[in-house]
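Action item from last week, closing it out:
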Amino acid sequence: MFLDELLKIMENFINFESRLGEDKTYLATVLFSINRLFSNKAKFSFNQEVFIAKKKQKPIVALESAVITHGLPYPDNMNTALELEDIIRKKLKELKLKLKLKLNELKHLKLKLKLKLKLKLNELKHLKLKLKLKLNELKHLKLKLKLKLNELKHLKLKLKLKLSELKQLKLIEFK
């Protein structure tokens, strides 16, 4: 398959001179085909650290070569780049640790919420009990009011009696 694609590209490249006048994008097409062919089949070599990290599916820390060659001053550029990689690695480990802490914090928060909810439910039960007590107090108050009404009736009766006594008294006076 690789050879077939390479032969096709070579045929296109041979025909390049004859087609150059008619199609200006022909060269770009041929070069793109060559680039695509080799970029798909390219083999990369990794140092041992990167190879192990890839195998274990761990994060790989590598600085862009332009940063090392153009962005950092020589002669400290390589040492600075290695230090930066170490800092990034440490931060990645801390981040992982922090994420685990966050999960524990969330579990703690969940526990707190559960306790708070239980407390709220107990408070509601207590409130319900208080309401029942208040209702009983209201019933008691109602009973007291009935007693008061009876007392008022009794008082009214007493007043009537007093009035009749007054009438009797008047009667007595008039006699």
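Closing note: The helical segments are 2-14, 16-19, 26-41, 48-55, 65-71, 77-174.
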